[in-house]
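Suppose you are handed a protein chain with no further information: no name, no annotation, nothing but its sequence. What can you learn? This example shows the usual starting point.
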Amino acid sequence: MELKKNQNINGNLNISAKALEIIIKKNISEIEGVWDLASLPFNLKQFVLKRGGIGQVGFEVNSGTVALTCAVILKPDYPIQKVCEKIQDQIKNVVQNMTGLVVSSVNVYVMDLCTD
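A reasonable first move is to predict its three-dimensional structure. Written in structure tokens, the prediction is:
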């Protein structure tokens, strides 16, 4: 599934869900306290997939904005709320800067803590 970004005299610009996942995964891995992206929960995945997305990142386009959803595994001994706020801020900024999409929200689901 693709997000239609822009239509102009030169043609269309479409951004795939896979491209969004790669952008988000690369940038999430740089945040202190994050272990990795996780798979979205089954019920949530079905809900998100009705709108768009793949296993680790979902999105919903509404009135020219996109709401992103991701599931994460965090490292222990980091404040969960602060790490998630950093994830939300960083994802919103990087997706907007790299794609030009307007991000209305970033929903983060903490699926697990890595104990390795």
